[in-house]
Every structure is written in structure tokens, then in C-alpha cells.
Write a structure and sequence with these properties.
- With about 260 residues, the protein is mainly alpha-helical.
- The protein is about 60% helix and about 0% strand.
- It has helices at about 25-30, 40-45, 50-55, 75-90, 90-100, 105-115, 120-130, 135-155, 155-160, 170-180, 190-195, 200-205, 215-230, 230-245, 250-260.
- Helix 5 runs antiparallel to helix 6, helix 8 packs across helix 9 and helix 14 runs antiparallel to helix 15.
- The longest helix is centred in the middle third of the chain and has 17 residues, at about 135-155.
- The termini are far apart.
């Protein structure tokens, strides 16, 4: 019997640079050529978005990317890059070229290419699923930030479409439904309708009130914490009811975090 060759151990995951100054020139070249994923926020912020775009979308004229202002924040740089890609390649071709890319930042561009596309909300949400469930947490954030303006425009319809996501097997998708509808959120425009009346958001929150995954729990708690800044009585009422109806540790953890500023 032939002896099995010893399996080669997989290399340990690369540790991301903690500071932008720690990103070496060699590492930066790999990041900006789209060969590898960024492993930290410092690496993401260090990337010259124009250089990355030239590498991952070489069919777009190189001079077009000069419209990306390096002084802008990362979300605005990606939004500008996505608009350029869509303008030169068309929405479908731009999205298809980026959505499965090795580079997490390139996949972030795909999120924004979908976000700027003139398309019905239901189609956008179906298309964003692989990116909302991406292995990379940064891509998952860009996936909801990019579609947030569309949700704000059609909030009632968005809640209707996202409610089934709360029953998805993937915690990433369940969390997406909560995160994209947060009344205030982070790095995004506020949903003024939910700030004024958070009650419609219960269609998303109720199915998640005892979610066993901390990733989802934190999002639900942050949703309620957002709401508490404008409607504290609403949050107190909801959490008091949940404490009676769902007396488990998952719900208790959500309530503790939701009430941290009340």
C-alpha cells in the first residue's frame, strides 16, 4: 500500500498592519494590484484607490481614475470609483468584473457599483446577497452602506423585503437586515422616518430578539440604542416586553447593550 504523503500545513493567517506606517512598500504593491485582501483598517486606508482601480479594471482609461480625490474618506472614494466604472463599463459589466475579485476593496467597489445602478430595490437586494455574506467584514459593511440610500428612498418596501432575511441561516444576512435599517447608523445618512417613529422597524427586530449569534445581537442592540436617542420611551417599552416574553441570555444581552445610554 502506497504511503500517504504528509500534508503540508496551511500557513498561519497574515496579521494585518496596525498602523498605516506599518504597511510596507511590498505589501502595499500587492494590495493595490488586487493580489491580496487587506487584513486591517490601516491597510484599507493606506491603499491608493486610484492605483487599485487601474489594476483591477484595466479596460477603463487610466486617466478616468484621477477623478477620485485621495483626500476623501474610503466610502466616498469607493463611491466615486464605482461611478467611474459604471460610466465606462456599464452597471452589469462593472459589477460582474468586481464581485468575485480576490481584493476585498475591489468587492467593495462592486457593492457601490450596484448601489449607483438604476434598478428596482428587490433586484438590488437579491444581487447584494453574496457580498452581504462575504467572508470579509469590510465588504459586508460596504454592502449595506452602498444600498442604504435606496433603502432610505423606499423604507416601507425595504422593510418588507428585508423581513425574510431575519430567518436566513447565515448570521451575516440576518445582521444585514438589522444594520441597513438602523435609524442612525455609522458612516451613513440617518433614516429620518425611523428616528421619528421606530415602530416599523419591529418587523426586523422582533424575529432577531433572541438570536444566538453575538454578531446579530450587537446589531439589534445598536439599532435600539440609535432609536433611544430620539424615542427613549419606545426602547424602554420594547425591552421591558422582551424581558418578559423572551427571558433568555441572548435577549438579556441585547437589552443590556440597547439600554447602555438610557
Amino acid at each position: 500500500m502506497a504511503r500517504k504523503k504528509p500534508s503540508t500545513p496551511e500557513p498561519a493567517p497574515r496579521k494585518g498592519a496596525r498602523r498605516m506606517a506599518d504597511v510596507s512598500p511590498a505589501l502595499l504593491r500587492k494590495l493595490e494590484s488586487g493580489q491580496i485582501e487587506a487584513m486591517s483598517l490601516a491597510e484599507i486606508l493606506k491603499i491608493d484607490t486610484r492605483a487599485l482601480c487601474r489594476s483591477v479594471l484595466p479596460s477603463v482609461p487610466a486617466r478616468a481614475w484621477e477623478a477620485i480625490d485621495p483626500a476623501l474618506g474610503i466610502t466616498q472614494r469607493l463611491l466615486t470609483g464605482a461611478r467611474i466604472a459604471v460610466e465606462h463599463l456599464g452597471p452589469k459589466a462593472a459589477f460582474d468584473a468586481l464581485t468575485d475579485h480576490t481584493s476585498d476593496t475591489a468587492r467593495g467597489l462592486a457593492c457601490y457599483a450596484l448601489g449607483v445602478r438604476e434598478w428596482p430595490l428587490d433586484k438590488k437586494l437579491r444581487a447584494i446577497v453574496p457580498l452581504a455574506d462575504d467572508r470579509n467584514s469590510g465588504v459586508r459593511e460596504w454592502a449595506w452602506i452602498a444600498l442604504r440610500p435606496a433603502v432610505a428612498t423606499e423604507l416601507e418596501r425595504a422593510i418588507e423585503l428585508l423581513e425574510p432575511w431575519t430567518r436566513e441561516r447565515s448570521a451575516n444576512l440576518r445582521r444585514y437586515a438589522s444594520e441597513i435599517t438602523r435609524p442612525r447608523g455609522v458612516w451613513c445618512a440617518h433614516l429620518t422616518a425611523l428616528r421619528a417613529d421606530p415602530a416599523p422597524g419591529l418587523r426586523i427586530l422582533e424575529p432577531l430578539r433572541a438570536d444566538t449569534t453575538k454578531y446579530v445581537q450587537d446589531s439589534v442592540a445598536n439599532w435600539l440604542n440609535d432609536a433611544g436617542k430620539d424615542a427613549p420611551a419606545f426602547v424602554r417599552s420594547v425591552t421591558a416586553r422582551w424581558a418578559k416574553e423572551s427571558p433568555g441570555e441572548a435577549t438579556a444581552r441585547i437589552i443590556r447593550r440597547a439600554m447602555r445610554n438610557l
